[in-house]
Amino acid sequence: MGNRRQLSQITTMVIHCSDSPNGRANTIEDIDQWHRERGFKRDLKLAPQWQPQLTAIGYHFVIELDGAVRPGRPLQESGAHVTGHNHDSIGICLIGRDQFTQEQWESLRTLVQSLSDPSSPPHLNIRTICGHRDLFKGKTCPNFDVADWLLNGCTPPRANILPEVRQ
């Protein structure tokens, strides 16, 4: 269950993948169901009006195949996405395993830039942007090197771009 936190406590952004087949149009509702089945729970008392239909989602944002950025947990509620780091991090999940649509890449870049800009709301203090695998050894998620992606101007590695998907 998530705990209330101050936005000033958030210093890390963690990028994840859903580990679902590339190109399969899963949604934030699917992930909420998967997390419910794993025993995750949100504390809906912390923000009762914020996505009340999502009772288990561990991520703060999910980026679907069409590039839609879907909000999950409110930023004021700690996530359930990386053991030992939920108290000070935001979880962002890309739908897919190791290839993501151009729209997802563009949305990820925009979201990361927006959240890491201290002069823009919600005025976070992001100091670290990394992949799940960088905080939890043995994981490969999100199946690309987030540090390299950032160093290359948020240009996705060619191998991680999903060929056009028909929806």
From TrEMBL:
Its EC number is 3.5.1.28. The keyword Hydrolase applies. GO terms for molecular function: N-acetylmuramoyl-L-alanine amidase activity. It comes from the Bacteria. Keywords: Hydrolase. InterPro entries: Amidase/PGRP_sf, Amidase_domain. CDD domains: PGRP. It is an enzyme of class 3 (hydrolase). Residues 1-143 form the N-acetylmuramoyl-L-alanine amidase domain. The keyword Hydrolase applies. Coiled coil: none annotated. GO terms for biological process: peptidoglycan catabolic process. SUPFAM superfamilies: N-acetylmuramoyl-L-alanine amidase-like. This is N-acetylmuramoyl-L-alanine amidase. It comes from Parathalassolituus penaei. The lineage of its organism: Bacteria, Pseudomonadati, Pseudomonadota, Gammaproteobacteria, Oceanospirillales.
